Amino acid sequence: MLHTGWSLRISITGMDLNRVFKKKWSSETMRNRLRHYSISRNLTIGLFLAFGCVAGVTLYASLRFSSHQARVALQKKTDEYITSLADILAVPLWHFNEKVIEAIGQSYVQNDFIVAIRIESVVGDWDFRKDDPKSQTAFLRTGTICYQGETLGEVTIFPTTRYYAILNRRFFWSYTVTLVLMIVILSLVSGGLFRQLLQKPFMQFIDLVNAYVSGDQSAFSRHGTYIELEPLVAALKQMGDTISAQMRSLQRAEQKYRGIFDNTVAGIFQITPEGKFISANPALAGILGYDSPEELMKCIDDVQQQLYVDRRQGDEFIKLLEQEKHVEAFEVRLHRKDGSMMWGLLHARLVYDDRGNVQHYEGFLQDIAVRKQAEMEIQHLKEQLQAENIYLREEIKLEHNFDEIIGQSRMLKSLLSKVEQVAPTDTTVLISGETGTGKELIARALHHTGPRKDRPLVKVNCAALPAHLIESELFGHEKGAFTGATVRRIGRFEFAQEGTIFLDEIGELPLELQARLLRVIHEGEFQRVGSSRTLTCDVRVIAATNRNLKEEVRHRRFRQDLFYRLSVYPLAMPPLRDRAEDIPLLVQAFVQKFSKRLGKQIETIPQTAMNALQQYSWPGNVRELENVIERAVIISPDNTLRIELPQEQVLAADTGKTLQEVEREYILHVLQSRGWRVSGPKGAAVVLGLNEATLRSRMQKLAIYRPKAGKSPL
């Protein structure tokens, strides 16, 4: 390119024109030919060749310059990716979310620009490489990962050489095309300009030659002429500089933003104060379930109304943004295109115009569905652990009847032998027997000697719960499932996961729940009340009842299929009256227990008292015996046990009455002595050693009614 200040000077001083032109220049024909000969074509060709030489030199410089520019652009683009990746990795590294770190690394390494990524941090190192053997890299760039002013590590990106080659070709052809156009334009324009500027001096040169040949020496008073080209050169240079500057500016802007905008895994956006998208990148469209940014911007006219699940959350975000000017890590729930809900993390800042008014706000959105799912699972496990701790604390507070099973009778040994056989399995067991015989104790023995002993044993008394609460107690409920359900509750089957559930008084379970219980036992599936989500459980079921379930099935008060599913391995608890030889051992154990608790020293148990205890029918079984011994320890003034049995201690064989009649009379007597009070510390249930619900069931079975209530059982 011609530089400003260059000029073409044509001088004829000191030339020997006689030797050059000789006599033929004197002919008129030659003079006319020279005068009318057009120099424009030859001059244009000459200038074109001259500019071509300059172009060759410039072309070589362009190759070197385009190579340098391509390397600089590659380094800038790599630095932009490093900055973006470092910002995105900061939060996962701070919280050490390895899954998110791997997901981000895999996402970035799939980019055509990147061959490999290396992350070195205080919590660990990761290497990600593209599975393409043809991918090569020319150099690497390293950046620092910081979060809240603390350095967490470094990230290194290895860019591909293919992108360098593309940039090199792009710069080369850009400069080459510009150069060729300028050469053509300069050649054409300069030919015309030079024709106008040099026509007169050149013709004067011809006249001088002719004057010299003719001998007219006066024409040589002037020694030369000058043609200045500065205006043309300055105009062309200014035009070329302007074009080059604009192209470089556009290339820098495109290189700076396009790579980050299109290839980052975070959803970048610009939104007007009215809630309309100005721009969005493909990642944002993908996060929200749209096929392209254009579709997203076309479908969403108001972000506040159409995207936020809870508009109050959107209002809070805008208010916070206006107050703080920028917001980081704001959790939101947004609607996707298909109607589903997603969790996102918003980062945004306000952008102002020249007059200080809010022009728009811009930022990026991160999909944190994986993190929220993990948090929900952790919260669920935390709630379950808290519930299990509460339940276990309640279980610890319970007063167990025995520290171990006591007895040496043949019937008890046979029962324990069966327990030993079935305990190591997961078989469902049905324990039947009268109230107070120790069914729960056998259930605990089955659990603690089985493979699930390290998991909880959860007890549910089906008779102690109102019918409308049994379902919620067993299977749990969701918040708002019914009136009073202010929080979500985990059911007993979830508490007993991988453990054992003991369903006491299973005969009291309402018919409508028996089908659901059958499904849980048979398929291991259930649903919380108020939820359509099916949950699975791995639980061993042990059931107990004081009813004759075969009779209940025959009277259609108990499902036959459930009965057969429960009684895979039935165990029958013998009543205390059928194993009287175990009574002395039980009495001795109870005396030691209550003596220690009450601070007394009972050393002697009269044989007469022991005989009386062995002859009594014990309708309340072991529980009633325990109550009698506790009362005896309390009323004994010295170290000799004083026994006071109920007045109805005469055996049924001596009165000619059946056991059911004796039991009915005894319960009726106790109720009358307690003023027909069933519950409470002075109620008949405490005296009989029975659960309140069990006593009411017995009263209904034995047709015991309050006199004033007619046919209404208590």
TrEMBL record:
Q: Which PROSITE patterns match?
A: PAC, PAS, SIGMA54_INTERACT_1, SIGMA54_INTERACT_2, SIGMA54_INTERACT_3, SIGMA54_INTERACT_4
Which keywords, in A-to-Z order, does the entry hold? Activator, ATP-binding, DNA-binding, Membrane, Nucleotide-binding, Transcription, Transcription regulation, Transmembrane, Transmembrane helix
The record's annotation in Gene3D superfamilies points to:
1.10.8.60, Homeodomain-like, P-loop containing nucleotide triphosphate hydrolases, PAS domain
Q: Which Pfam families match?
A: AAA_lid_14, HTH_8, PAS_9, Sigma54_activat
Sigma-54 factor interaction domain segment(s): 405-634
Q: Where are the transmembrane segments?
A: 43-63, 172-194
Q: Which residues form the PAS domain?
A: 253-294
Asked whether the keyword Transcription regulation is assigned, the reply is yes
Residue span(s) of domain PAC: 328-380
Please name the GO terms of the biological process aspect recorded for this protein, alphabetically. Answer: regulation of DNA-templated transcription
Q: Which GO terms describe its molecular function?
A: ATP binding; sequence-specific DNA binding
* Name of the featured protein: Fis family transcriptional regulator
